[in-house]
Design brief:
With 328 residues, the protein is an alpha/beta fold. The protein is 27% helix and 27% strand. The chain is built from 11 helices and 17 strands. It has helices at 14-25, 55-61, 65-71, 106-115, 188-191, 193-199, 235-238, 246-256, 262-269, 300-303, 309-323, and strands at 7-10, 31-33, 47-49, 79-82, 88-92, 103-105, 122-123, 128-133, 139-143, 148-151, 153-156, 174-185, 203-208, 211-218, 222-230, 276-282, 295-297. The strands form 4 sheets. Strands 5-4-13-14-15-12-16 form a 7-stranded mixed beta sheet, with helices on one face. A 5-stranded parallel beta sheet has the order 7-2-1-11-17, covered by helices on one side. Strands 8-9-10 form a 3-stranded antiparallel beta sheet, with no helix packed on it. Strand 13 and strand 14 (211-218) form a beta hairpin. Helix 1 runs parallel beside helix 4. The N and C termini lie close together (9 Å).
């Protein structure tokens, strides 16, 4: 590898951005390519608990631990477990000095990383269409705007359906048998006080009958709920269900939760936006990649796991920080 290698990170998610940040701390040039048109092109999802031995360790390596602590919500570490009848089985609220897994919104974490990169590190509107080995350990990247670039190291941090992974593995993510249907509540304390009290400051899970309601408090008094069911991946198509028909989706979901506590069912019926279908995929365990000079993977691209992606996000950014230790 040349003294100053040409490094390309594919994907401006937490893993790719953490890797870029640590590389730049060591004065190593890097370019991040992302298919989104801008950093604000789409919502970044819910909340993440940053674990002390993984996510926080990666942020410490990136020199961002103190900034993270200023943004994080230690109270979000509260974990509450309920039965289907609303009985509280477990409720653990953190002490004032506990920081084993404070929460942070995905968007806030991404902004923190983006704001600390050198200007023009991220090239937006660059959708990768092909990676071609040039025979000497280098690779040519082609994008959907007909541009291309040659690099010495390709770091695939482009998620579950990675365009880089096929060069290292022919395995594809498989449906886990679990689908989450996502809904959200805005201004929860004022507009939905009973549900806000039910969820608490962190995560509430009601689990029974191979089903679950998982509700998480995020910043700005928002609650995001995942309605989890073991069901065929194409359940709505088999039922002839239009996912944009809120009434039909609501009634179908309520049918799966027959007999559950009426207050819990309000997490299905009371929401401030439509239902979003999110089937859960995972790579097989174990999953290994063929060693190929000049190319590697981070985060979900090599080890997509489900359904609790908070753990995956911690491992992803730890991947990004640790990869730099392997570089000359």
């Amino acid at each position: 590898m040349p003294t100053t290698p040409r490094i390309a990170v594919i994907g401006a998610g937490p893993a790719g951005l953490t890797c870029a940040r640590v590389l730049q701390q060591h004065l190593v040039p890097v370019v991040v390519y992302d298919l989104d048109a801008s950093r604000t092109a789409r919502p970044q999802g819910g909340t993440l608990d940053m674990h002390a031995d993984s996510g926080q360790a990666a942020l410490r390596a990136a020199g961002l631990l103190e900034q993270f602590r200023q943004l994080s919500r230690p109270e979000g570490q509260q974990m509450r477990l309920l039965d289907r009848d609303g009985t509280v089985l477990f409720d653990d609220a953190p002490g004032a000095d506990e920081d084993h897994g404070p929460e942070i919104d995905r968007g806030q974490l991404r902004d923190l990383l983006l704001d600390t990169l050198d200007p023009d590190t991220v090239r937006w509107s660059h959708k990768l269409t092909a990676v071609t080995a040039l025979g000497d350990g280098t690779h040519r990247l082609r994008f959907d705007d007909d541009t291309s670039t040659d690099v010495d190291l390709v770091i695939g941090a482009d998620g579950a359906w990675s365009k880089v992974r096929p060069l290292l593995s022919d395995v594809l993510p498989a449906y886990t048998g679990v689908t989450f249907v996502e809904v959200g509540l805005n201004q929860a304390t004022a507009r939905h006080p009973h549900l806000a009290a039910l969820v608490g400051n962190g995560t509430m899970m009601a689990l029974a009958d191979n089903k679950g309601l998982i509700a998480q408090r995020t910043s700005n008094d928002h609650i995001r709920t995942y309605i989890g069911v073991r069901i065929d991946q194409h359940w709505h198509q088999h039922l002839g269900l239009d996912l944009t028909n809120d009434t039909a989706v609501r009634d179908t979901l309520l049918g799966y939760f027959t007999g559950w506590d009426p207050t819990l069912l309000r997490l299905i019926t009371d929401h401030d936006r439509g239902y979003t279908n999110r089937p859960r995929f995972a790579l097989p365990v174990p999953h290994t990649c063929t060693h190929t000079p000049g190319i590697t993977l981070l985060g979900d691209a090599p080890h997509l796991m489900s359904p609790f992606s908070g753990i995956a996000a911690n491992l992803a950014i730890l991947d990004g920080a640790e990869l730099t230790r392997s570089m000359p």
